Amino acid sequence: MNLLLAGVNHETAEVDLREKLCALLPEAEKSYPLLLSYPEIREAFYYTTCNRVEVLCVTEAVEVLPGLFTSFFARHPEVTPASLANSLYFYQDEDAVRHLFRVAASLDALVVGEPQILGQVKEAYRQATRHKATGAILNRLLHKTFSVAKRVRTETGIGDHAVNVSYAAVALGKKIFGDLKGKNVLLLGAGEMAELALEHLKGQGVDKIVIANRTLERGLRLAQRFGGQAVSLEELETQLLSADVLLSSTGSDSYLLTPEQVKTTMRRRRQRPLFMIDIGVPRDLDPKINDLDNVYLYNIDDLKEVVEENRERRQAAAVQAERLVVAETLKFIDWLKTLEVYPTIISLRQKAQTICQAELKKTLSHLGPLTHGQEQALEVLTESITNKLLHDPILFLKGNHHRKRGQAELALVRRLFNLDPESLDPDSEN
């Protein structure tokens, strides 16, 4: 049995090609029956994200799988084998296991340490099991994958440090308040940066989210997704009265808030602290606002320093994580290699039992009438001798000996016990 992983990612293929390949695998009800219809594939599992499309399988015909997967992906009317030639990569056995571990642990991600990919792999595995596409090997591998990813996050802290601006803004808010639970958040703008910030904020248990945007319709759509409230920018000063955190990312041509406006609002707030983050370029908030008492204003440059520092910390954690991945990969490959010996062990037991039963039957026919108890005693004696004779050869096969020279030692054992008589050279018996 071999493992083979094939796929494309953000480093090998443009987004246009990735989108086309993703389109081939939208429905597990069609994709898995097709993959498993290939006689060369014993087990299958695939996952897609915005950055990658990968298929992993168990096969006894690894040499034909690259061509098969090329044809599989080239089923898209706008994808040809030639267009895949420089984009499609293949990993086999140990390399495939290590690659999967690195993907799930977010070591092979566009942003190292981001947690989303593990959830996507888990959901893909649920789809695979629902369609009975996985078996003993992939089931064990995927469960080990989740275990490794969890260990990487808990033992290295690789995801503890914010490495995108929106996440850094939320992390900075937590640092100021200690806890964002129960806080009111006001967002200016409804673009990508605001959306990313909302994803992080929702996980922090904030009490109220208000989105102020020039286009109310866009603000409403975003508010519906995250359980917030949408208002127009004309209501900004009113909404500022109840806000604990203001995050702005509109990139307006002029300042949306001036020191005078905020000073007036702070009086009405009775100087309750206000945390403001301006990640707009150009800036949305007059930098002089930071001079006001109990107002803490940060801009995108402040956050970039945090992001860069945290990126360095994640890289240091990634080195530790890579060591963990290598160690766990070797453990899994060791287990996988033990599967190679079981057909030989089964053949050895079957041959020994067949010989013993034949000899016992022959002996019983010459002994004359025996009681049932005497026959049972002879059967137990025969089985006991068989097990004791097989004990050392089986220990040898299960132990570390066969891993040193792999198939060569398995072939030697099969030849010594003549487990494949049809493959022997007749001349070698003389």
Topology:
Blueprint: E1 2-9, H1 15-22, H2 28-37, E2 41-48, E3 52-59, H3 65-73, H4 81-84, E4 89-92, H5 94-104, H6 116-130, H7 136-156, H8 165-177, E5 184-188, H9 192-202, E6 208-212, H10 216-226, E7 229-231, H11 236-240, E8 245-248, H12 259-268, E9 274-278, E10 295-299, H13 300-338, H14 342-367, H15 372-398, H16 401-405, H17 407-416
Parallel strand pairs: 5-6, 5-8, 6-7, 8-9, 9-10
Antiparallel strand pairs: 1-3, 1-4, 2-3
Helix pairs in contact: 5-7, 5-13, 6-7, 7-13, 8-9, 8-13, 14-15
In summary, what is this structure?
The chain is α/β, with parallel strands linked by helices and 430 residues long. It has 17 helices and ten strands. Residues 423-430 have low confidence and may be disordered.
Radius of gyration: 32 Å
Approximately how much beta-strand content do the residues carry?
5-15%
For the largest sheet, list the strands in their spatial order. 7-6-5-8-9-10
Overall mean pLDDT: 85
* First-to-last CA distance: 35 Å
The share of residues in helices is 40-55%
CATH topology of the largest domain: Beta Polymerase, domain 2
Oligomeric grouping of the chains: single chain
Based on CA inertia axes, which overall geometry fits?
A: elongated
CATH-level-4 superfamily name of the largest domain: Glutamyl-tRNA reductase, N-terminal domain
Order of helices and strands: EHHEEHHEHHHHEHEHEHEHEEHHHHH
Number of strands: 10
- Outline the low-pLDDT stretches: 423-430
User: How many helices?
Assistant: 17
- How many structural domains does the protein architecture include? 3
Biggest β-sheet description: 6 strands, parallel
Structural class: alpha/beta
- The CATH architecture category of the largest domain equals 2-Layer Sandwich
Instruction: Report the top-level CATH class of the largest domain.
Output: Alpha Beta
